[in-house]
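Take the subject:
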Amino acid sequence: RMSAELLASRPPESDSTLVLTLSNPGARNALHPDMYAAGVEALATAERDPGIRAVVLTGADRFFCAGGNLNRLLDNRSKDPSCQADSIDQLGAWVTAIRESTKPVIAAVEGAAAGAGFSLALACDLIVAAHDAKFVMSYARVGLTPDGGGSWFLARALPRAIAAEILFEGKPVAAERLHALGVVNRLAVPGAALNDALAWADALAGISPNALTRIKSLLDVATTQPLEPHLGTERDHFVASLHHADGLEGITAFLEKRQPRYKR
């Protein structure tokens, strides 16, 4: 069979964006540990390249990701449990790399995002989904429990009762419902999710990279940090941003009524 891989590309019309494409032909882009290591490496490369301003994660052939391969999981039952544990740890390392990336990461979802595919989409900062796309955490339906941070992200993004419903039932949830609930940012015409995500990435490329990195950091600690220490964290980021080259360029451009040009 053709191999499961993560393809990395820089579209010529959107050269400041790194596009990562989940590709597993014939298996609806089901995940494989090879993809996890490639994902961690791709994000490390993006971190080192100031020319990359955003990352878009998508799936090949107008389908995001079917999640884990059940045949492979069944096969893993005959191996030592550490084998499956290692695989999940590798997935976790990729999810962590997405969260810790200093660049905005946008998921572009067509078709469906299932299981760990849904977890990967949730790990991204922003989600653009075709309005007919489906999201499903089907673990419980096959006697399993979430991985890749699925339960963590849903518990933070939604009221507990809704997160429980999605995880208990394991039924597909329409992109339109998740959009209404605030989990999906934007709905796209079917087939246009990637183009819409690339256009959004281009728009974000015009925002101060320093500011975006610091805002991501603030969002990460905001859910666990009490207000008083958070005010101090905000103060420190603000002062550092004001004295950063981006702060000078941003304020000057605004006062001169022109578009800012942030250095790469």
